[in-house]
Design brief:
alpha/beta, three-stranded antiparallel β-sheet, globular, binds 6-phosphogluconic acid
Amino acid sequence: VSPSTPSRITRTVVGLDAFAQVAARQLLVAAAEAVRERGRFRVALAGGSTPRRVHAALLTDERTPASNVEAWDVWFGDERCVPADDVESNYRMADETLFSKLAPPPCVHRVPTELGAPAEIASAYEAELVREFRLRPGEWPIFDLVLLGMGPDGHTASLFPGDPVLGETRRLVVAVRGAKPPPDRVTFTLPVLCAARHVLFLVAGADKAAALRDVLAPGGASRLPAARVRPTPGEVTWLVDDSASRLLPGAE
Ligand code: 6PG
């Protein structure tokens, strides 16, 4: 992760109603390109609540049925260390809002939270990444698309401000005690997020406006976790709704 290398950053500001449709469309474009070029679409989903509406938009997008969903490998950028049927589970949210409604379903790589200890869960998920991406030591998995959210404090996935794991340069998945409940989580590390071909941040809501202004400030000085996701040579798109963008320069 070389902070000096500017990622190709695209910023799209849309109204909340268009937000989900635009996000779904971008995912489907990435999926079509990946399946065409490599036969599989390797995507990591974001947790939290914002993706719900994007999953719903995917189900109503007329392109989805022709998108070879059975060629999608779906991973999670982070997961809470709770049972898969727990209301706080990112897997449960994605299953309820997306996987269970797709026929044929995608190939879902669920985080094995049943293993109990967060460190166990993290190393098991990392081992699955190594196996599925056929990684040699020092190699990073290259996702076609990583969806990410951002918290009001500038966290992304489960990488929280000030957490030493932000400096991780070797492991792919780590266990953290996050500031956002539930605290026990596992998360992709920054090098994994930065190895992606395309990162799509989905940021909606006025409570994100201050962090967004910091993260997108010119010159890239921000040290917030979301600001440090600078895919190289990949690109990052910030899809923000008008209330999250209200403090950005030039916002009316
Ligand atoms: C999580 C997410 C987290 C989320 C942000 C935004 O597991 O909670 O990975 O990083 O994306 O906190 O959450 P909302 O979309 O709910 O605002």
